[in-house]
Predict the structure.
Amino acid sequence: MYLSHTRAADTTRAATPAGPAGRVPPTVVALGMVSLVTDASAEMVTAVLPMYLMYGLGVGYLQLGALDGLYTGATALFRLGGGYAADRFRRRKAVAVVGYGLSALTRLGFPAVGAGTTGIGLLLAADRTGKGLRTAPRDALITLATPADRLGRAFGVHRTLDTCGALLGPLLAFGLLLLLPSDYDAVFVVSFLIAAVGVLVLVFFVRERPRGEAGDSGGGRVTLRTCLRAVAGADTRRVVAAAALLGVVTVGDMFLYVALQRRMELPEEFLPLLPLGTAVVFMAAALPVGRAADRAGRWRLFLGGHLLLLLGYVCLALAPAGWTAAAVVLVLHGLFYAATDGVLMAHVAPAIPARARTTGLAVVQTAQALARAGGALIFGVAAAALGLGLTFTAAAVALAGVLGAAALLHRPGAGR
Amino acid sequence: MTAWPAGRARTATGIALICVLLAATTGYVLWRARAADSDGAWSLRPDRPGTVVYVDRGRVRQVPRGAGERAGRSAGKGPDCQRAAVAGGTLVCLRGLPGPMSSDVRVYRGPGKPQVTLPVWGEPSRARVSPSGHLVAWTVFRSGDSYVAQGQFSTTAGIYDLRDGDHYGSLEDFRPYVGGKPYRAEDVNYWGITFAADDRTFYATMASKGRTWLMRGDLTRRTLTALRENVECPSLSPDGHRIAYKKRTGDRWRLHVLTLRGGRDVPLAETASIDDQPAWLDDDTIAYTRPGDSGPTVFTTPADGTGTPSKLLNGASATAPVPRP
């Protein structure tokens, strides 16, 4: 019932595309800029945090590991709650502002809390909470501002800018430390100021509803039941199940990089640089892959992305050691992200009624994130018992199996 | 939701506010850079007796012993470092470089450019100079917490001989003996080197399979001999007879002093868990770093286990140019 309703709404919107062909709505570009500066700000902190704890505070290295476990699960609840609140009050932007603002404020907390591990743990948890709160409303704003037939492209633009920020962050942080040796407080303050710029861009340049968009206002009160029913549609349910299953059999990034470094016999020093390879490819490919997804079908691209990842695993296992093979694996890994991250949102969004969309996207993202975390846990235990090589082979076989099952489980109509 | 306010005014306000923030960011960075510049030129003298050399906010500093809370008015300033040590007129400085896990070991005999610069792979952890000033040692660590298992890391400990330029890049190239037999496990890690006065003998910690040993090293024969278990970050007293170290119980470390001949082992008055390589300020006083709310803090405590710890200064990595016995 909801599905037919939204599909109809989507076709009318698609029939009257806003703006010149080939351009994404300004709101999407603005949200991309918000993500760019926010990610740059966040990655600045991530890059210097170990050094800050070690040398700025004198907290021993072993205590650092204990901080990590604090926040992994906590964000899921906030993500769902934030998604529902955004739909319930039809204030997606407001929830996003709270999320971005909270993360920005945590940066000022670091110089203030001092050496207490509890204080730093709480700050990291608050930062993750902000991230959890804002992701679904932000993606919902993108889908509400964009005609359905251009969603792939819109998410492509957004993810390109987002990844660009993530790459800029460490450069900014290390540049600052070159200019101001050991001045970690300066890094936190600058990170805060940059995050505040992100909040300003969001407040002033992101529009909650494009002119003439009516799908949002009708339909009466949005309740928890409306949202749950919207998400429980057969189509969405299958997408969530398939994405979660694929998430479980996706090898955690860090395992992939370690395996790559060892298998390809790269110098150990290059291990911290391998994620950059993935990010650069992701950044470069997100837009073209998103456009391809609009034409060829987003679910097809999503599954195709996992096929590329499988190819990467096979390459990792069988290719002769060396830089070429390592580069091929990183390119495949980056393409996997380009074909799955925003593309999944673009695929699932039109099937969820606009008034419950934030909740719906939050459910998909949470399911995927929890599945990946669970998968990483299983992989870690298996790798400790069986060794990295055997575990990788098992993961590849499992991915191939789940990929086949996912292709059968969810076959969207010919139109998509 | 209310109607969208006039677009142009809103855009102008947004741009103006963003410009203000960006200007504030630039101004703030320039102000911090000026503050750092006015921190003063090089005035450190590694051979000045009766002083403590330490690291505060990323810079090597020097104060007279007993300056205590007045440590802000330091007698000397040196290079930018995270870890430093002095002895015999030599200053060794470990400096983390921007970028993941790369550092420099810099050795200074006077102001200006370092006499030796060695690139190392890892974050600065420990530094030491032999009493003669001829040998320098360093430990760097690399985190593995994100991919191997939480809290795991590996370390590299190396030595450089200023007299002939011999570079012992890693103690892993030495031959370890445990219980008189060659020890062949692959997972060995070394950290916390300390030198004896003969410029040949040194001590360090070896870790393998969840155990740690106090190793006595021989620079000429390139061997390491296990003396005792559960001794980390050893520090040899100026008289050469005792070793201050951190002893692990559970997930805590307690500072101890071990008498090499006879094996008398005394816990020090500091009861907090200390993760540092202690240093001898003289034959009776141990200095070490504790995390504090305003950053790391150097404390001292008597080497015989009596007394109470007292704060020496704000900073870390304190050593003293100890006169030779």
Q: What stands out?
A: The two ends of chain B are 81 Å apart (CA to CA). Residues 145-151 of chain B have pLDDT under 50 and may be disordered. Chain B touches chain A through 56 residues (CB under 8 Å). Residues 27 and 33 of chain B are 10 Å apart (CA to CA).
